[in-house]
Predict the structure.
Amino acid sequence: MSPSELILFFMKTSVILSVFAIGLEATFRDISYFLRHSRQFLLSFASIYLFVPLTAGIIILIFSDIHPAAKIAIFSLSVSPIPPLLPRKHLKTGGTLSYIIGLLVAMSLLAIIVVPLLVEIFSLAFNRPGGIFPSAVAQVVLSIILIPLAIGLIFRYLLPNIADKVARPILSIGSVFLLFGSSFILFKAFPAIISLIGSGTIFAIILFVAIALAIGHTFGGPVPNDRTALALSTVSRHPGIALAIAGINFPDQKLSLAAVILYLVISTIVTTIYLKIRQRSLQQPEKN
């Protein structure tokens, strides 16, 4: 197994185990959450699929001097809104479980149609031919999100007592795989990441992440924990789909992987700061 294949194995396994563990703690009612809350669905959709790609386009135009790979990463990530680590991160915020699961399922299903459409819109806007097939997105959604989640739900339905006992250990194992995968990625891509720093690249990514968090927080509704959950969903992007989009549309850009990793590192730092602020504010009554 090559280093790249090993990294991919660790990352995919981490996602699958994390989503499976969430399925072990969820119910079928959680999946249909947005069928009963249409207003929250529309606000979530607008936050994740409309305003973040629009923000990406504006930032790319404003920061015209940043490295081309950084522009590609911001564009690709903005139209790849399937957060692979959404359940693990969101449960730590104390968000409503039904809202979180409903968000994961609804936005993942919509990605099959919306992601290729967003790529096409960006291609036309920036006068560059390209695209991604819905089948490519569907394969990712099914393999690492919907199937593991469904298996977890079925397992819980059949063996609820065992599901309660094994959910957290499986989540912990997924976190270990994530740690190994992240370490390998950073080690392999560190020199390339350093080469991207400069010309406002760091500031552009920080601004993009901060605006995405603000959008999700604003559209999250009156429940404080749901605001946090949507903020994290809005800023979280799927690196696998982003790299596929970058590879199809910009095959000559060899630093796309490094730029995507740089985004993930910066996003992690900024969201950690956001979560600390939210944890403090949630200890007091929130002012709307």
